[in-house]
Amino acid sequence: MQLDLETTNPDKNAARPAKYQHSLEHFRDLAIAHGTIKENDDMGVLREACYKQGLKKAAWRFLNRHGKEAYSAMLPMLEDSESTFEIILFYVVWQVRGGLREPLAGELGERIFVCMGGILGLDLKIDARIARVANAYWKKLTGPIERKIFAREEWTRVINWMLEEQPVFDRNQWRAGWCTIHRNYQTWKRLNPDKNTWTSILPAFEQDGLRVQPLTSSYDLAQEGYKMRHCVALYAYRCLADEYRLFSISETSSGQALVTIGILKQDNYWKIDQIKGRFNQVPEARAARLGLVIQRKYLYQEELIFREKARHKMLERRSRIEQVRADHESYLCQKLKIGKVLRDQFCPTEIDYIENHAIWLNALVSGELKPNNYEQVRFIAVTNGIVRPKTVSEATWMKYQRIVRTLH
């Protein structure tokens, strides 16, 4: 097996084409820095160490063939991370699993990293074949602007979709290529317009020459993570659960991203959780100060919304009460004329009460009208035999009902 072009048979090395003349020295230096091997260990020891960590023979050959190019997309994103070596190993394995014969384009690889929030592992739920399909499409794009738009828009959105929705494609769809995969994403997005997005009650604003922009989708977080080289995409699920909100701070004049600010909801109160610059570094003071401004403004907006909801609820309740009253009044306007036989059974006061209230009371008892006070609720209970009559009007109505049933 070919282990390293500098340590294997020199005659075979000379016979290889120039495009295969890669060195694993950088990879070896990473392994030493990580503590995987010692400084005086050779490539055979490195190979066995990689095998123990999950690297297969095909992936090792891929590394030999392409050297640093096989994982260079990860290097700008890791920046002395303790997991650098493990992430690189997984990334190489993932590319080989997808059937790539040459490394995935650097910008595409970087965006996979940020979409994952900087956490790459063997449980990555993205079918590796998407890398091969995207790489083939990438080669067909003619210029740097076209490729940049593809990486920023189509590729990032599709990767987020695959991470969160786990779509399944058949063999024919994989063979059809990128356009078919992207068309499936567009169909899903059309049917789920609000999926993987959330609302920030605090709109964008400007202060001290800086622009504060709320991040309101998984795509926004992936873009921010790519610009700032940190793991903000990892917070998508917390934002969807309405317990976290993120804001991007940039220069108003140049548009340069300076800091990402996150606020966390605990015990129904929003507080500053983190203020991070590029590569999670401490940002400049004027940008960091906006953390308190965002917190105060968000709490103020929430208070305004609470008051508006309370006012709206009160108006709705008042409207319902007025409607019930109007319904009652429409029945109270109707009179019932009782015959002579019934009149002989009641005194004039009782007759007046029955004629003015019978239609209204029948509607109340039958459920056509809703009661709007305690006396009416009690009256319904009396007519249903739940409680005994207590007032003169209750006794009069029960007497009227008893006589009517007797006559019929």
Series of H and E elements: HHHHHHHHHHHEEHHEEEHHHHHH
If helices are DSSP runs of H or I spanning 4 or more residues, what is the number of helices?
A: 19
- The domain count comes to 3
The separation of the N and C termini measures 107 Å
Structural class: alpha+beta
Helix content: 55-70%
The share of residues in extended strands comes to: 5-15%
Largest sheet: 5 strands, antiparallel
Strand line-up in the sheet with most strands: 1-2-3-4-5
Could you report the average pLDDT, rounded to the nearest whole number? 87
Radius of gyration over C-alpha positions, nearest whole angstrom: 37 Å
The count of β-strands is 5
Low-confidence stretches: 1-21
What general form does the structure show?
elongated
Could you characterize the architecture of this molecule?
The protein has helices at residues 10-15, 25-34, 43-52, 57-66, 75-78, 84-97, 106-115, 129-140, 144-165, 171-176, 178-191, 218-228, 236-240, 285-288, 290-332, 340-343, 348-366, 374-383, 392-407; strands at 205-207, 210-215, 244-251, 257-266, 269-276. Strands 1-2-3-4-5 form a 5-stranded antiparallel beta sheet. It is an alpha+beta fold. The longest helix has 43 residues, at 290-332. α7 (106-115) runs parallel beside α9, α9 (144-165) packs across α12 and α17 packs across α19 (392-407). Helices cover 56% and strands 9% of the residues. The protein has 3 domains: 10-190, no CATH class; 205-308, Aminopeptidase (3-Layer(aba) Sandwich), CATH 3.40.630; 334-407, no CATH class.
